Amino acid sequence: MEQQQVVQVRSETLGSPSEKTFGSGYLIAPRLVLTSAHLLPPDEPADITVSLPDDTGAFPARVRWRRHDEIVDAALLEIPRTARDWPTPTTLRGAPYRHPQRWGRCVTGGTEMRATATGFPRQERTTSRRNQTALVGRVRPHGGAKFEILDDIGLLQTDVSGLGAEKAASTTPWSGMSGAAVFLFGEKLLLGVVRADRLPRQGTRLSYTRSDDLLACADFRAVVRAATGVDPRLEAAEFVGLLEPAPPRRNVLSPIMLLRADAEVVSFHGRQDTLADLEEWCLTDPYGPLAVRVLTAPGGQGKTRLARQLMARMRDRGWVVGQVSHEPRDLHALRTVQYPLLLVVDYAETRPELVRKLREQTREARHPVRLLLLARSLGSWQTRATGALPETRLHALSPGATDQQEAFRTAVRDISRHLAAVVGGPDVDWPALADAVVAARPVAGPGVQTALMVQMEALAALLRHVRPTQRDGRTLEDELLDHERTYWQETADGWGMGPRGTKLLEPAVAAAVLCPAHDEHEARATIERLLPGEPPGHLTDITAWLRDLYPPPEGRHWGRLEPDRLAEYHASQQIVADRGLLRRLFGRAPDHQRVQTLTVLARSAVAHTNQGRAATAHTVMELLREALRSVPAYAPLTATVLRAHSDALPEQSHVLRDHALDVARELSRLCHATGDTPQARRDRAWALHNLAERHRAVGEWQGAREAAAAAAALREGLADGGSLTHRTEWADSLLVLSHACRMTGRLMEAYDAGDRALNLFRALAQEDGEEGEKRERGLVRALINQSQAVWQLDPGAMPFDQTARSDDHTEEAVRRARALVSRRRHPELDPLLLVRALTERGTNLWRLRRHPEALALGEEAVQASRRLAEENPDAYTADLARALMGLAVDYGTASRPRGEAMALEREAIGLLRPLAGELPAVHRSTLAQTLHNLALGLSQEGDDAAARECIQEAIEHRRTLARDPHGVAVPGLAHSVSVLATFHERTGDDAAAAEGFEEALEIYANAPLPLDASNLNAQSGTALDLARAYDALGRPTEAAAPLGQALAIRRRLSEYAPSLYAEGYATSLHDGSYLYWKHGRPIAERILLRQALPHHRRMSRGSEEGREWLAICLHDLGTSYARSSVTADRAVPALREAYELRVELAARDARYEAGLADTCAELTRALLRTSRFRDCVPVAEHAVRLRRELLVADPEGQEQPLCYDLLRLAEAQAMAGHTEAAWRTVCAAEKPCRELTDRPGRSPAQNAMLLHQLAHAVSLCGRHDWSRAVRAVEPARRAARIFRELADQDPHQAGAHAGLNSAVTLLARVLDRIGRHDEAFEAQVRRGA
């Protein structure tokens, strides 16, 4: 209560001077008085005046609101603006919203509370005035239908002199106290307004109208809101020492204070979906157990403001709400709350013990209890606080340019309404200035901005018009801090510090940010550490100045710069500018200051990173790590400090990784010698688990494995008792151990640990009780881990049906992760878990060759991880890069334009390069794989130089990784070396290609770990490539060994997993048969084709593509048979089956017609060779029809095959006795054959063969007519001449000599057939010369 605001209220009914009343009142705003309604005439016009107790002047007042009934007896009187000489009390001067009245209510069923009311009772009447009297009594929370102030002793005599009989009869000692405000004793919480004296036989009992009944009146609230600018809010009287004041803190002294969330200067904007979700969370299951949720987001995202908005909504629903400020000595009153309760804990990551106690004290409450925790991120703090928590991750407020512009407009206009009271400027037209600032702002880009960033920009834009500052190359934070320095300087001048003192202001403000002080002694000690050697007078002045600079919260000697983002920025800038500042402050600081210093600077490093100031972030971290290393021996770091700080660190952060490991190492060392009690062992296990996690974050896999193994062993012992929590912790450590074992090459151990973790989590997920969602999330992580682990095993170590369970695992992981999100009906809940489940599901589908199913999952993963990375690049950039790489693979397998996939890969590489440069053990492998993939895409696009450069960079990274003794990265190196060799092969450098393939196979052979199925498949592919390279170099005998190696591996893989590798084995057999065909080894060729045939038959049952491959295999096998007269009969069934398959395929899809035409041609040839002329004719006719159709779209490719098909048709018709049809066909072929052979640029060998075939067909079809048969001479002679020339050019070319022999024989036969025997003999002698 403010005594200056107590007033006297007088009322006189106009026309009835005897009808006068006198009472008390209280100013709740500069010109608004709260009093009792019964003091005022109900209907008649009256002369109402208000006067201050020490002033004889009476000022007119008018009734703004009144209500008088059984529940409420209260009124609001307003002193009009026309009363210009009204002396506003000093406690209410300034803007009315700076000192909003606080309103209280009793919310428990507990003991009585002390209360006070100050007024002007009759017994204090003198001849000239009435004096104030403060009644100190007690109120009973929920003490019955009447609400009273009780005082067992305070019975006073009643002075009724000068009163009439009737008036005297109704007068009591406390007459005149009506309308007095009732306050919680010693606090500023208004509980109600005095109504009447209950006239007890002993002591005092004054009834009063409760504040909660007043605020239940909407019109009452409207009047108060209009007068104060603030909506009145009820607070719990019993928890005044626990909860923050409810009204916004509008007593701002500098521009930056307008940005505080608790000032509520800028209207609440957006977040309606999240707000509705949280409100539903509060209201769902009202009779269920205590519910806890954590709201996470980087600083400045709007967590606190959203929580305040939620509290306002729930307060309107009758809930007891409040933000916990600090822990009082006794929290037992929480157990007796008579209403639903919502408690908000800000900075929960730094206050886990408080959260735990709140939870314990509210667990047995009879009404719904909700704890909403606000934190920068999840971390180990949640384990100490409550265990696992449902997380609502607060996304950025304004992702779109239009939304950003609207948020900026709102911020400018709201801030401008309050800025005049802070910076002055009576001549400034603030509304016009706000409109000008909004109009001048450039349209925001597509980037994501936090709510605080938008408001900072708005404030800076307004201040530029009244306080111009330098802007070139400066950050927004620097610009705003420049304005704040003006405030510092002005207040320092008031203290008369002088030039020397003003130089110390900035480090002093930083010290207040880093080192909160509980009392004056601690504050003075902090400043002495900060400024050693300064005169005592300066130290005293600066300590006092800091206390006055920013209002201190309860329990603190000084406040600090806010909002946090600017405070953290300023503190970090100061420690960078003065490298000794941190060491001076930290070295001898008490524990709570050390925790604050570590937390603030760690947060500042993350903020610098996310704003693109990586160099500053690294400098801050270097100084922070150095401060930890250089603490004096007489003031060592304690486990309490390190645990509190470790709990506040985010679960993943790139910039904090090394610092977090430093903390974890020291904490584990301190916990190692804490005894052998169950709690000591649990603490030691936690420290080891935390150490393992931090080792993993920096890629120290061996350290991670050792720590995780020790943690798992300890937790296994603790879990023997069957506690859900202990078993969950054990399963967590087994998961970390599994991952660390995989990264250190202990693959079977990784599988076993992961399998134990999976079984544990699966059983735990079935259990009821608390932390159910933690166990479900653990199950999702275990499913993902086991899917990864099983694919790294040697195929001989695990049957494929076990490996294939990864399909079920990843499907279940995605399903459960989605359920965790949908159960809480909000898309931003626990998003990274779903991203990782989606990514692993997509990868697993790729392994299982189910590519189409993976694309949508990959796109969803990228969309989610992109948003996370935009909001917190430090934490989530690597996750985005991995998602981009996976989606690029999905694009490639989905036949999307290659450019789209390459764009994703380039983006991922851009993100990964700096990460891999700083943390190669973690990110280099992902960078190398992405470069590898991009190189393949560039090669497909024909950019050979860029592809080679890209794959060489990948190889360099993988050579470095392969030096790791665990050997995990060795197969990747072999794969990249093999890809470089294929690039050499494509550019015609077969020697370099062979050398590369040899190196790759040697790397595979010397790999320290057994190769998994995927790497075995890659190894076999390299062996096949080497065989082809040897063949290209003319070293066919050397090709046999790598070909045999490839076939042996693929046979093994085909037996291991037929669904995945049978096709590859069949393809390899096919490829090998081609090599044998090239080198004239038909028997070996047919053996491989026959081995491939059953695999192709199996694959043909499931797909159209499989049937096409079966047709190809039959085609090639039949063609091979047909080349030899000995096996020609076996050719026809194979080619006939191929023909029927391709007829079926072509009927469904015209793409298969070219293959059908080829099979028709080969089947025609086989039927001719086996003298099945009548069967041959329809097949040959079909071939001709197909070729003519294909000729339209592909004249160059189909012209020669058509000529041959026509010639074979003519031959079949002739041999089948269709003489005239045969002649017509051969005549139709003659012209295109001659045109084709006369065309420049064709190969002589091709011309010779076509002429030879033409001559044979003309001679055969015209054998019964000399005039027809003679037309065969010219093409026969030309064919013989060309073959002669080819044989002369290369005497060792067996093909040319064989062709020459055949051509000479045909020429002699043609000449003999037309009776030119001498010429026939001469042709044989001269052999085409």
UniProtKB/TrEMBL annotation:
Gene3D superfamilies: Tetratricopeptide repeat domain, Trypsin-like serine proteases. Coiled coil: none annotated. It comes from the Bacteria. This is Tetratricopeptide (TPR) repeat protein. SMART domains: TPR.
